[in-house]
Design a protein that fits this description.
The protein has 337 residues and is α/β, with parallel strands linked by helices. The protein contains twelve helices and twelve strands. Strands 2-1-3-4-5-11 form a six-stranded parallel sheet, with helices on both faces. α8 packs parallel to α9. The relative contact order is 0.12. Keywords: DNA-binding, Transcription, Transcription regulation. InterPro entries: HTH_LacI, Lambda_DNA-bd_dom_sf, Peripla_BP/Lac1_sug-bd_dom, Peripla_BP_I.
């Protein structure tokens, strides 16, 4: 059994209340007693109960971070931004991975709330968060990342998705491409809707017909295998004259799968087909990949999310916060275009 305040009090022959006050630097305890208590506590290896202390002080100095896919290199970069900002602010992070599963997501959020976290940062499995009933009925300060949740008292940290895709489209069109495919990641996702909007806006501005046959979405996982399978379907469903000459993907993992499928079919990249991703994960800049991509400021998103959450916690309901904070993406041109 761990060392408690009671065991320290017994060792010193003082009351429980005296030890508690001394450890909390209470002015009613004289300096000599404080030194004795702290010395004995260190000698016995005493560790304060953060949750118990939180109940007294109304804070636990802990933040929950819930992400949907820890295998996607996008999210570890976000988590690094959150964690480093948390260290600066003297907070600790509880990290949970949901694997895009709403039930697991709800379970983790409830578990974190039971641990008396001070606030929550999360990327939900979808923009429909009605399954998170306990969270929505609570007053827990929450910030969303990479998903726009249009509810009062919540802030979303997102990138200008439409602007990012429009930049990529304008670049491809300037290079002479007209048949450009868009591989999305679920029609219901806000980010996907905005990226598709940017795709269509660019086509309209350049008087190029929008053709539904070039627009498709993966159904479940937004990973390399999904990109590989979908690109093979596109190759098999189009004759050579109808094939797109360029593809824009919802994320870099899908784009890596697209590249793999194209190379196995004998396509040259970018001569036969150009490929653009979205996110700029670490793999994208590797010499053997060199993927052109729309870079999201991942670390900054995490950092801003934590800083915004801390401000929400400290100001309570005194200050009104923006419903969303929108960051700018950057087109990084590499060898696949």
């Amino acid at each position: 059994m761990g060392v408690t305040i009671k065991t320290i009090a017994k060792e010193l022959g003082v009351s429980y209340a005296t030890v508690s006050r001394a450890l909390n630097d209470h002015p009613d305890v004289n300096e000599e007693t404080k030194k004795r208590v702290i010395s004995k506590a260190n000698e016995m290896g005493y560790q304060p109960n953060a949750i118990a202390r939180g109940l007294v002080n109304n804070e636990t100095k802990t933040i929950g971070l819930v992400i949907p896919d820890i295998t996607n290199p996008f999210f570890p970069q976000v988590a690094r931004g959150v964690e480093e900002a948390a260290v600066t602010a003297d907070y600790n992070i509880f990290l949970c991975n949901t694997n895009w599963n709403p039930e697991r997501e709800d379970h983790y959020v409830n578990a974190l709330m039971q641990k008396q976290i001070d606030g929550l940062i999360m990327t939900p499995s979808s923009e429909d968060v009605n399954h998170l009933k306990n969270l929505l009925n609570s007053q827990l300060k929450t910030v969303f990342i990479s998903s726009f949740i249009p509810l009062n008292d919540y802030t979303s940290i997102i990138v200008d998705n439409a602007k990012g895709t429009e930049k990529a489209m304008n670049y491809l069109i300037k290079k002479g491409h007209r048949n450009i495919a868009f591989i999305g990641a679920g029609e219901e996702r806000y980010a996907n809707q905005e990226r598709l909007k940017g795709y269509k806006n660019s086509l309209k501005k350049h008087d190029i017909k929008i053709e539904d046959k070039y627009i498709t979405n993966v159904k479940n996982s937004y990973d390399r295998k999904s990109g590989f399978d979908l690109m093979n379907q596109i190759i098999n469903n189009f004759n050579k004259k109808q094939l797109p000459t360029a593809v824009i993907c919802y994320n870099d993992l899908l784009a890596l799968g697209v590249i793999q499928a194209l190379r196995l079919k004998g396509f040259r990249i970018p001569e036969d087909m150009a490929v653009i991703g979205f996110d700029d994960i670490s793999f994208s800049s590797l010499p053997e990949v060199q993927l052109t991509t729309i870079a999201q400021p991942k670390y900054e998103m995490g950092k801003i999310a934590l800083e915004t959450l801390i401000e929400k916690i400290k100001t309570g309901s005194e200050k009104k916060f923006e419903n969303k904070i929108v960051l700018s993406p950057e087109l990084k041109i590499r060898a696949t275009t």
